[in-house]
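Hey Z.,

So I finally got round to the hexanoyl-coenzyme A thing we talked about over coffee. Here's the setup:
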Amino acid sequence: MSEPLVKTEVRGRVGLLTLNRPKALNALSNEVIDELAQAMRGFDADENIGAMVLTGSEKAFAAGADIGAMQGWTFMDVYKKDYLGGNWESLKRIRKPVIAAVSGYALGGGCELAMACDIIIAADNARFGQPEIKLGVIPGFGGTQRLPRAVSKAKAMDLVLTARMMDAEEAERAGLVSRVVPASRLMEEALDAAATIASMSLPSVIMAKECINQSYEGSLSDGMMYERRNFHALFSTEDQKEGMAAFMDKRKPEFKHR
Ligand code: HXC
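And the result:
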């Protein structure tokens, strides 16, 4: 049997997904994204999983969409198939948190895939960029939308228009990355963070993720109302009773809904 393009592994309550085209620096063909979306949906539906980590190889998280595959495509090919609107866009519907553990290159679609995750933890050798302009195209999966929200308009313009890469330290300063860790500690740190998330009550984890994502979509007052209603809803759960009782009793909570 041939090697999977995305390897999956379960570590406790964490689902680990590893992009597995190392020779092509994890170039993101449609087949890779199909496998990734299917594996993520599987973990999302699995009651024993509370969070996921997505990673690549030491040299590359992913160096972008597959240029060899795209090279011959015409407008009609991509338009009729709505390239990026199907399997790529479906990643947005994953409800459980996904941490991108980025080592090496995260370029083009690779940077956009990391940004589609909920948290980016970067190794100190990570390099982020949107070099599509050098190929005569532009980013297609959030490089002109998620990136300016994460790092400011000025820096997004700089990265997208010049195609330069930024290192992990700059990415953290700019707000794209939540933590930078030594490359040797990347997986430990990402898996620990995911395990911590997976130990919380799942309804509050999912609602917190949805509320933060909502803050990118509409007005502040709509977002505040969305948050408040979700906050109210959590008072209907046994886990709210347990979490608050555990605090008062000075013990660790035993959440039922994980
Ligand atoms: C297909 C790729 C690839 C890619 C690397 N490879 N990136 N194949 N698509 N995006 C392949 C190379 O062809 C090569 O294959 C092998 O991986 C190793 O790459 P090298 O270039 O030899 O490695 P190196 O010299 O170390 O340079 C690393 C690099 C460079 C700086 C990351 O590979 C590079 O610039 N890659 C392209 C980055 C890019 O432009 N990304 C944006 C893609 S467009 P062989 O067979 O020769 O060994 C995009 C659109 C997004 O992402 C739209 C939404 C998804």
